[in-house]
Structure formats: C-alpha cells, structure tokens
Write a structure and sequence with these properties.
This protein is α/β, with parallel strands linked by helices. It has two domains: about 150 residues, TPP-binding domain (Rossmann fold); about 80 residues, SIR2/SIRT2 'Small Domain', CATH 3.30.1600. The chain is built from nine helices and nine strands. Strands 3-2-1-7-8-9 form a six-stranded parallel beta sheet, sandwiched between helices. Strand 4 and strand 5 form a beta hairpin. It is elongated, with a radius of gyration of 18 Å. It starts with a helix and ends with a helix. The chain binds adenosine-5-diphosphoribose. Adenosine-5-diphosphoribose (APR) binds next to loops. Adenosine-5-diphosphoribose binds next to loops.
C-alpha cells in the first residue's frame, strides 16, 4: 500500500529530488551512524570526525578514516542505489542529494549527484588547498600514520565534511536550489538529525520519507514509510513501470 501511495506522489509531484543518508548504504555492508548498530554507538564522533579532533590529533582521525576509506572502496552499490539510478533514467528523479561519502550513487549510475558532505575520492590540504586523490593517500598511509600534502607538506585532511566545518558552498547551494525548485523531496535512509542538510526537505513544497525507524521530520512529512530502502525503492521502480 505504502509503495502505491509513494508511486502516486512521485507521479503527481514532479520534479522529485531525493535526499539520501547512511541508511541507503547499510545494505551494501556499510554501517550507519545513529541506529542501534551505528558507528557512533562505538566511537565518539568528536574524537574522530571533528575539525577540532583533526587539529588536535590528526593521526587519530586518520586511523578512523583509513578504515572507513578501505571499507567504502570495497562496497558495491545495492538495490536501493540502482533503483534511484533507474528512476533518474526514466525521468522520475531529477537528482540525488546525498550525505554519504561512499560514492555509491555515482557508481550505481546516477548522473546528477550532489555530495553535500564530500567524499572519499580525495583528501584536502587546508594550507594550500591541494586535493590529493584517494589512491595516493592510501599509498602514503602504508608508510606513515597521516598523509602529507605533496606541495607544502602539511598534514592532509580527509575529503569529507568534519563536524565543526562548513559544508562545500557550491554543493549546498545546488542542493537548496534543487529542493526549492522541486515539487517533492523524497528522503531515504536518514535520521534527519544533522543540520543544515536535515533542513533541506523543508525547502520543498512537500516531502516524503522512507526510513527504518523514526526521523526528526516524520510529523511534517506528507508520507512516512517505515521500511527498508532497497526493497521499497525496487518496488517503487516496478510500480512506476
Ligand atoms: N533502509 C532504510 N533505513 C535504514 C536502513 C535501510 N536498509 N538502514 C538504516 N536505516 C535508517 C536508520 O534507522 C537511521 O534512522 O537510516 C537512518 C540513518 O541515520 P543516521 O545513521 O543518522 O545517518 P545520516 O542521517 O546519514 O547521518 C547524517 O551524520 O555523522 C554524520 O556525516 C555523517 O552524513 C552523516 C550525517
């Protein structure tokens, strides 16, 4: 029933923009952050994923991100990612805005992907703004606990938005523009706990949610489906065929 409702909403309310969170990648073997088995249940984000932690102890931050980068690079897109790429190809999804850094939407074939929290593709130098590709960063991490900028030799920062950092301005502006010019935002697999991205659905005339468990915006959603991303999005493709 919920999928039929969702399909009707997406047919009626175009363009539709999708906002995804870690919940769409758990079926690729990547843990999310805030569910019972989430990463933040095991480790304090302000110890390993904040700009203060990076300045205080970059090697500790790199120990965490080296594991993340290794895991994410081995993961494969799942049915949820593939379904969104299919819905974009069929004209039902205009773009995917993602909080995820795993690059799985692009690898699944989605063309218009806005990564508002950065990605594992590279690491950044805060001193000279150089961007070092992940392959070279991982090669450095074989020899040293934190990678250095090849130009100014400062310690590189993981190419993801750390807590306490501003989001990439161009990506966030594009995400807001997409939400404001949409007729519907479909949120998939996010607790909607982390601002400013959590506020994106409120920029659209209406939004629907597909998420296992509650989110911070369930009451304002036009439809909230408590179900798995992969199964729901695959059923949505079938319903819109
Ligand atoms: N299908 C649907 N929902 C799922 C699935 C699934 N297969 N697996 C998990 N979920 C749900 C969880 O129950 C949870 O409500 O996805 C949601 C993920 O929420 P979070 O773990 O908070 O992840 P997210 O919303 O993406 O976090 C936002 O916080 O730590 C920062 O930078 C990090 O981008 C991240 C941001």
């Amino acid at each position: 029933m919920a999928v039929a409702e969702l399909a009707a909403l997406i047919r009626e309310r175009q363009p539709c923009v999708v906002l995804t969170g870690a919940g769409i990648s758990t079926e690729s073997g990547i843990p999310d952050f805030r569910s019972a088995t989430g990463i933040w249940a095991e480790v304090d984000p302000f110890e390993v994923a904040s700009i203060q932690a990076f300045r205080r102890d970059p090697e500790r931050v790199w120990r965490f991100y080296r594991q993340r980068i290794d895991l994410l690079r081995q993961a494969e897109p799942n049915a949820g990612h593939l379904a969104l790429a299919e819905l974009e190809a069929r004209g039902f999804v205009r773009a995917v805005v993602t909080q995820n850094i795993d690059t799985l939407h692009s690898r699944a074939g989605s063309k218009e992907v806005v990564e508002v929290h950065g990605s594992i593709r590279s690491a950044q130098c805060l001193e000279c703004l150089w961007s070092e590709p992940a392959e070279k960063v991982l090669a450095q991490l074989e020899e040293r606990p934190a990678p250095l900028c090849p130009h100014c030799h400062a310690v590189l920062k993981p190419g993801v938005v750390l807590f306490g950092e501003l989001l990439p301005a161009a990506a966030m502006e594009r995400a807001v523009e997409l939400a404001r010019s949409s007729a519907l935002v479909l949120v998939v697999g996010s607790s909607l706990e982390v601002w400013p991205v959590a506020g994106l659905p409120l920029e659209a005339p209406a939004f629907a949610i597909v998420n296992r468990g509650p989110t911070a915006l369930d009451e304002q959603a036009i439809l909230s489906v408590d179900a798995g991303a992969g199964e729901t999005l695959s059923a949505l493709v079938a319903a819109l065929s």
